[in-house]
């Protein structure tokens, strides 16, 4: 069986909703990232045998198989195929998994797993024509589906997390993200526009705050319950961005003069309680560690998507995780969460972090709506 390895991984800086990428179509943003990947890797895109693309809100500018459209916009040969998928917040990570599985099965020598989301130009839920009220009533009744924010409140209750706990964690996410701003080797400087409409090149994540006011954070009203603890400040930012990961067969890559940077120790997707819905990260982590033969103590770097601070803190309390090794460069509360892009983006960020710190083993785990989660363990080579 072939061994799938990561050869290159890049992402655009993430922009705020209505920010630097408000004038950039998502297919063009992904095309820019695809070109940036092959240019940085010195890789001939004609060698690609598939481009697997995560995108959550697949309508409008993100419809019509945005992966294929971005391949064509990037100027790649027409012979390079692409497919788009939606595993909600885990879409980009699932795209990397599928690319790696295709390579490992011997179906492809080289494939891309990538993701994109413009939450500015293609708002969340626009693919279903509204919010939860548009879903099948049986899902809301018998199954009991609720908004993720309400699940985040239930998580805080279950793990005895206070508003002070969530806000303190969120402030630390911004502090870490600001402190590491110069370290992100995975970032592609990306064209955009400033508030006045003038052209600029975005070189860092737009949502990161150099200083967070605890007083202003504490003054925010709860978003989902009048007496709740979840606010806009302790949840992920709505963002725009794209990310791309090049995966190849190790022997083919070495023969072609390419440098493998990491291999996969585990790839996992799980289903979990659709009401609590965001804590699939716990069984996903356990399964990924079991399959890789590792423990949390073996890991040098952990990326858990900060959809809500309560998710990370509940996961850490349940598993006894050392938060010093969790999101060392901050997370989505600070840098944003462009839904379909985040999975591939966290892979790129984690690999850059491991290389910057001399680490070897990394775990990436993401909560997913309707009660799912994805997890990946990589090892630098």
UniProtKB/TrEMBL annotation:
InterPro entries: Thiolase (IPR002155), Thiolase-like (IPR016039), Thiolase_C (IPR020617), Thiolase_CS (IPR020613), Thiolase_N (IPR020616). SUPFAM superfamilies: Thiolase-like. It comes from Deinococcus rhizophilus. One of its GO terms (molecular function) is acyltransferase activity. Residues 5-248 form the Thiolase N-terminal domain. It is an enzyme of class 2 (transferase). This is Thiolase family protein. Its EC number is 2.3.1.-. Keywords: Acyltransferase, Transferase. It comes from the Bacteria. Belongs to the thiolase-like superfamily. Thiolase family. Residues 259-380 form the Thiolase C-terminal domain.
